[in-house]
Amino acid sequence: MTPTYDLNKIKFATDEATFKRAVGLYESGNVTKVETLGGYFSAVVLGTEPYCVSVSARNYKQGHCTCYLGQKDTLCKHMVALALYAVMDGKPLGDKDKQLSHSVECSMRRDTLNKEELEAVKKSITESMRYVKPYRGPSRTWFANQDSLREGCNRLSAIVSDLPVNKQTAEILIKLLLRLDKKLRVGGVDDSNGIVGGFMTQIVEMLEEFAQIAPECIEAFKSLVGIGITCFQWEEPLVCILDETQN
Questions:
Q1: Which run of H or of E encompasses 54?
Q2: What share of the chain is helix, strand, coil (3-state, %, to 5)?
Q3: CA distances from 168 to 90, 116, 226 (A)
Q4: pLDDT per residue over 3-33, tens digit each?
Q5: How far is Cα of residue 203 from the mean position of the Cα atoms in its chain?
Q6: Are 150 and 191 in the same domain?
Q7: What's the domain count of the chain?
Q8: Are 81 and 181 members of one domain?
Q9: What residue numbers bound the domain in which 212 lies?
Q10: How confident is the model over 125-141, as pLDDT tens digits?
């Protein structure tokens, strides 16, 4: 049986602490007696004691574990460890497999993306933006919607953290900020937890760093002049940098 999710889904949709603990369990060989039945993977995961664990092949967050968290219907490290086994088929995880990018970091690279690389980045951003979805459902689905926002921002963090520092990528980041701003203002996205806003702030801070490393990036900020009302005036620090260079 092949799960419908993959390693990236687990990485970006699981909180960092739980993912790292699950990796530790998986790599230590603590996921034992794995079986498949009725659309579910089941196993005995060795922790403080042996725990009986199951996860759906369609959604690794659907399942059960006999540990304290699992009995409260909370995703635990044992369930995630079993999900890792399901997608990796017991094979070792590489260093890149275990790499997490839940926050934005400047790559410090100074190369330029070629046409194919540029299109690939744009495509991956568009695919990740699908997780930043509007919320119009009942209250019982609100937490799932917030999880989707978090996953989308985690995916976007991994993409932008790998971008080189130049005017070309600064323009990409400005367009991303404008798209996210539109989703918050008129797109129906409920950012009560500040997930999207926090990610946007990190992007602005990275663009400030871009401006210091490669001043030509400041040219990309011109598109922000006179754009009107934004959701929390995130553009102001960048416009200030532009004004300082023109005075």
A1: strand 50-56
A2: 55, 10, 35
A3: 41, 14, 21
A4: 999 999 999 999 999 999 999 999 999 999 9
A5: 14
A6: yes
A7: 2
A8: no
A9: 115-246
A10: 999 999 999 998 888 89
